[in-house]
Design a protein that fits this description.
- The chain contains 13 helices and ten strands.
- With 335 residues, it is of the alpha/beta class.
- The strands form two sheets. It has a five-stranded mixed beta sheet.
- Strand 6, helix 6 and strand 7 form a beta-alpha-beta unit.
- The chain is globular, with a radius of gyration of 26 Å.
């Protein structure tokens, strides 16, 4: 049987000091900084669920990431793309720190006791329009009575937008003929299968015009104030990591400002994020989206408008989508 030799403590200490000195010499004498926002070891990991495939509409996030605005703010940001049916559920389960969602979705979620809160509204105009051929007899919203309207289905922003337009005309879904046509609005209108379609202001009208069909639009934001897409997080994240939330919002808005100021640069910087991007098509969509981001120009980018939140809550409760007298004061926050 072998016995363990006992080494004097002084020799052990000397050997240990020599080993440390050798390691320091090999690695250099500097130690990692814990305060520099540019040191990857000190960055805070956050992510945002965008709820859709890569698209030029997300250019503010791409630009903020490419130009180092997130890193300078001390953040390591992951952009999670993909069509997701339950963005809030994934965020509340811890998959994402933020999601890109609308104000109406936020209020409906809060009415179901989900603790979500909007911290910035990027789309200052609700980007949904009712689209008709240029020679359509539908000249006003009231003219929709009795006509066939194609819409993706009774869900999402297009449906909320349609309800808002009908409401402003004093109509209900029973006064028109609704057809759930999925996301085939362009073909349905071009082939004359419906009298009107509901789509996104910065998408379907552009596609139809590229195909040579002249159209007119009724933009929801011209009739009913609604809160559109913005940055949403959980109440717990806002309470416990307010500085992180503020840093993410401000860096994103810096990216948004750059997109508006220099769309050509934004297209270039976004290419690596959008596989197979058609530059001409993306440019059209980007230029159509800039007015939606800017709104009326009376408020700063990303502004959460309390009066619009209140007006939207009244409309949603009137449609029985949220309870009457819903308190919206905690649904959004300024950071």
């Amino acid at each position: 049987m072998q016995t363990r030799q006992h080494v004097p403590f002084s020799l052990m200490l000397i050997s240990l000091l020599l080993l440390v000195s050798m390691l320091l010499a090999a690695c250099g004498t500097s130690t990692p900084s814990t305060t520099s926002g540019n040191n990857s070891g000190s960055l805070t990991n956050v992510s945002i669920g965008l709820g859709y495939i890569p698209d030029i509409q997300f250019a503010p996030f791409y630009v903020a990431k490419e130009k180092g605005y997130y890193k300078a703010a001390g953040l390591n940001v992951t952009l999670n793309h993909g069509i997701v049916t339950d963005l809030f559920g994934e965020m509340l389960s811890g998959k994402d720190t933020f999601v890109f969602a609308t104000g109406d979705e936020t209020l409906v979620a809060r009415s179901k006791n989900l603790p979500v809160v909007s911290v910035s509204t990027l789309y200052q105009r609700y980007p949904v329009s009712l689209i008709v051929p240029a020679d359509s007899p539908i000249k006003t919203l009231a003219d929709l009575r009795g006509h066939t309207i194609g819409e993706p289905g009774p869900f999402g922003s297009t449906y909320i937008g349609l309800l808002a337009l009908l409401h402003q005309a004093g109509l209900t879904p029973n006064d028109v003929r609704l057809q759930s046509i999925g996301f085939t609005q362009v073909n349905a209108l071009k082939q004359g299968r419906v009298d009107a379609v509901v789509g996104y202001t910065n998408n379907e009208p552009l596609q139809l015009r590229r195909l040579g069909m002249q159209v007119r639009t009724f933009d929801v934001s011209d009739y009913q104030p609604l809160i559109s897409n913005g940055i949403v997080t959980t109440q717990q994240t806002l309470n416990s990591q307010s500085s992180v939330v503020r840093a993410f919002v401000q860096a994103t808005l810096k990216g948004l400002n750059d997109v508006i100021a220099n769309p050509s640069e934004a297209l270039q910087l976004s290419q690596s994020y959008i596989p197979g991007m058609n530059t001409a098509t993306a440019k059209d969509e980007l230029l159509a989206t800039i007015p939606i981001w800017k709104g009326d120009g009376h408020h700063p980018l990303g502004y959460n408008n309390s009066s619009t939140w209140q007006s939207m809550a009244q409309f949603l409760s009137g449609q029985n989508l949220i309870p009457a007298n819903t308190d919206v004061s905690k649904a959004f926050a300024s950071v």
